[in-house]
Design brief:
The chain is an alpha+beta fold. Helices cover 21% and strands 30% of the residues. The strands form 2 sheets. Strands 10-8-7-6-11-2-3-4-1-12 form a 10-stranded mixed β-sheet. 27% of the residues are buried.
C-alpha cells in the first residue's frame, strides 16, 4: 500500500508540474502546428517545352520585339538574326483570347492588383468574392512583375505578368492576360523597356501580317552562350 501511495503522489507531482508549465507559457503549443505552404511555394510542375530556351527564330521583326504565340503558348523576345529567347506562357481561356499589336506602356515590380469591375461581378455570380484591390506580394495573382500593355496611349487592361500558379503555364486559364513563371517574367522585365512592341498572335488575327518560324533550340548558344 505504501508503494502505491508513493507512486500516485509522484504522478500527481508530474501532472501538477505540466499544468503549471503550460499555464506559465500560454502561447507555446504542446505540439507544433503543420507548416503553412504558400501558393507561391508549391512545386513547379511545368512541362519541359515551356521552360526558358534560346531558340533559332526566323522573323522579319526587329530585335527587341516581343511575339506572343497564344496558340502554342510561347512568348519570344527577338534578339537578332535567327535568335530569340522563348518563354512558356499561360493564356486566356475560351472566350478570352485576343490578338493585336500593342506596346509596353508601363512596368511594375511586385505589382498590386485591381481586378476589373466586370471580373468581380462575373466571379461573384459564381460565388467567388474578389477584393477590389490586393497588395503586391507572393500571393498576388500578378506575381513578381507586370508589364502593362497599351494601344494608342490607352491601357488595354491586358498585362504580361508573373503568377503564383506556375502549374498554369501552358494552359488556357486567364482572362486574357499573359502569364509567365516569376523567374521568367523577371528576366523579360529586365530586358524589355517601356515602349517595346508586342505582337499578340491569337483569335481574329487582328495583329495583321507577321512571320515567324521557330526552328528549335539554338544548341550552340545554349551550350556556349553568346
Amino acid at each position: 500500500m505504501m508503494k502505491i501511495t508513493t507512486a500516485l503522489a509522484a504522478a500527481g507531482l508530474v501532472l501538477s508540474f505540466l499544468s503549471t508549465t503550460a499555464s506559465a507559457q500560454p502561447n507555446v503549443p504542446l505540439q507544433s502546428a503543420a507548416p503553412v505552404v504558400r501558393v507561391a511555394q508549391m512545386p513547379k510542375t511545368v512541362k519541359p517545352q515551356f521552360k526558358r530556351q534560346r531558340v533559332r527564330l526566323v522573323t522579319d521583326e526587329a530585335p527587341g520585339t516581343i511575339i506572343i504565340d497564344t496558340n502554342n503558348k510561347f512568348l519570344y523576345l527577338v534578339e537578332g538574326k535567327n535568335r530569340a529567347t522563348r518563354y512558356g506562357i499561360g493564356v486566356g481561356r475560351e472566350g478570352f483570347g485576343w490578338s493585336g499589336v500593342v506596346k509596353i506602356g508601363r512596368k511594375a515590380e511586385w505589382p498590386g492588383w485591381t481586378p476589373p469591375a466586370e471580373m468581380r461581378r462575373r466571379e461573384a455570380a459564381k460565388g467567388h468574392i474578389i477584393p477590389a484591390y490586393q497588395e503586391g506580394g507572393e500571393d498576388n495573382p500578378l506575381g513578381a512583375r507586370a508589364m502593362y500593355l497599351y494601344k494608342g496611349g490607352q491601357d488595354t487592361i491586358f498585362r504580361i505578368h508573373g503568377t503564383n500558379q506556375p502549374w498554369s503555364i501552358g494552359l488556357n486559364m486567364s482572362s486574357g492576360c499573359i502569364r509567365m513563371m516569376n523567374q521568367d517574367v523577371t528576366d523579360l522585365y529586365d530586358r524589355a523597356p517601356v515602349g517595346t512592341k508586342v505582337i499578340v498572335v491569337g483569335p481574329g488575327d487582328k495583329q495583321g501580317e507577321v512571320s515567324f518560324d521557330d526552328r528549335g533550340i539554338d544548341v550552340l548558344r545554349t551550350l556556349f552562350g553568346g
